[in-house]
Amino acid sequence: MNSSTRKKLINAEHYTPILPAAAMMVLFLLGPIIWSLYASLTDYSMVGSTAVNPHFVGLKNYVALFTDPVFPKSLWLTILLILASALIGQNILGMVLALLSQKAPRRLTKVVDSIVVLAWVIPDIVGCYCAYALFAGGGTLDALGKVVGADWSALLYYHPMTIVIIVNVWRGTAFSMLIYQAALNDISKDVIEAAEIDGANAWQSFFRIKLPIMRHSILTNLMLITLQTLSVFSIIIVLTGGGPGTNSSTLPVLAYLEAFNFSKLGYGTAISVILVVVGALFSVLYIKLLRTNDED
Amino acid sequence: MKTEATLDPRMNAPHRYDWMKLVAAVLTALIGFLFAAPMLWLLVASFNTHATLSSFNLGFSFQNFVKVFNMQTFGLPIVNSLIISIGTSVLVVTFSVLAAYPLSRFRSKTTNRTVNAILFASCLPITAMMVPVYGIFVQLHLIDSLTGTVLFMTACGLPQGIFMMKNFMDSVPVTLEEAAWVDGATRMQALFHVVVPLMVPSLLVIFISEFAGNWGNFFVPFMLLMSPDKEPAAVSIYTFFGQHGTVAYGQLAAFSLLYSIPILIIYEVTNRYIGNQTLLAGAVKE
């Protein structure tokens, strides 16, 4: 045995403790991704003969997907959800709350921060039912509407997407708030004081000093909340079921409905493949971002 | 004196400051109220025997809690939730300690690539993958199996767990292990007798954040488990209450409240002893 192979063997031996974890991740994370690439090329279904013996159909599922008018609609709803609830809603409200917690009375901000975080830590399904009770017919807003003389009995029917967006802001803002609170606390007081002595007002101090210093935190946060929002499912299933029709079916919901309600597993899997590719692109961007952070 | 007073910014500052503070306080309180409003229903409905979806429908009785607090409705789903959450968290922590050790101790290209791959995996949109995961579980005959569900959830928790564990382990000095090696300990002995005892608080943080995430997980067990007697609380709330013609909203709220208690305790404890920021550590993967 020459010295370089021995070195490699010792090196490999060092890494053996990774094996159990690696095996789990290869089997259950990489496995489904590879399987989905294959299954999306078949007519695999939940019931019937194709459930046992699926046929290879080439790119048929993808062609069907791209020619189906539901797909661009669903894609748009997914982008809308990410734009409106994450990049605008959670991001800006999180920043506002982080800034407010530096200005408002200490005791009040402690209580409000806890409430905002509570809306985020309560179990998914419980949060969804709370939101459902607020917006559904016979719910709190419906009752309030009767008092003020407005008909709010079918909000979920007429404004499904708006409500899903509001609920996702409610559920997720705490994350951005915590990240921005940490980032604001990290800014040295000297820098802000120096700016104030030079005559900067609150706006200037925020836009010209704090925002540029926080840019890495902001970018990281935007990336993470985009990925989280790409995975939103329970809110939609509990509140609207993806409807009425497909009016609130984002891509993960559409994949689920196609696979289980319409028994088109191959078609649903094709949607999954596209989602994983989009998620993967974001992950690569995120890692690049973290790496440049390290170099700073 | 007069001119000096108006020119000195410190003289004007308190007045302007108070006004800003008032606006900030009102705005904060308003946002707080809006965030609290949806959760009020949980309290209102759980104590009302004739509860509806409206938070204006008040009542006071413990009847709902009494009704759901039995083995069939509450006990079994909670036991299933415990099996899934504790099983997954123990496996994630154990495998993460093992995997993080070489990644923390050896600097090489292999380490860098592995850490990158793990970071990449931690960003995978699990929800989006559930249709193919279901397909593969059918093929492997793992569908409707608590073990299969725990194994899958472990795999989902590992990227985050290993990454956190590696960061925590990086701050344990190597010199202590070297002393153990001199005394003839193997690497694994050094890991479990020297490094791990020093990392107990970090292990707890990872365990708790994993537990909280798994306790609240609805979608994965919803997809992978079929039999009602295997469903964890998150799923049984949806299937038992959500799909029975006339919904007993009071019982639904009471069940939800009881089911949320472990999370509320964890939240209060971490908030008090480690600070809110710790919660971030476990949240990224969802």
Would you spell out the secondary-structure blueprint of this structure?
The complex is a heterodimer of chains A (296) and B (286).
Chain A: H1 3-14, H2 19-39, H3 49-52, H4 60-67, H5 70-103, H6 106-121, H7 124-135, H8 140-148, H9 155-158, H10 160-186, H11 189-197, H12 202-213, H13 215-230, H14 234-239, H15 251-261, H16 265-295
Helix pairs in contact in A: 2-16, 4-16, 5-6, 5-10, 5-13, 6-10, 10-13, 11-12, 13-16, 15-16
Chain B: H1 2-7, H2 9-46, H3 63-68, H4 71-105, H5 109-122, H6 126-139, H7 146-170, H8 175-182, H9 187-198, H10 200-216, H11 219-224, H12 233-242, H13 249-273, H14 278-283
Helix pairs in contact in B: 2-13, 4-7, 4-10, 4-12, 5-7, 7-10, 8-9, 10-13, 12-13
Write up this protein:
The complex is a heterodimer of chains A (296) and B (286). Chain A has 296 residues and is an all-alpha fold. Helices cover 78% and strands 0% of the residues of chain A. The longest helix of chain A has 34 residues, at 70-103. The radius of gyration of chain A is 24 Å and the shape is flat. Helices cover 78% and strands 0% of the residues of chain B. Chain B has helices at residues 2-7, 9-46, 63-68, 71-105, 109-122, 126-139, 146-170, 175-182, 187-198, 200-216, 219-224, 233-242, 249-273, 278-283. The chains are: A mainly alpha (296), B mainly alpha (286). Chains A and B meet through helix 2, helix 5, helix 6, helix 7 and helix 8 of A and helix 2, helix 4, helix 5, helix 6 and helix 7 of B.
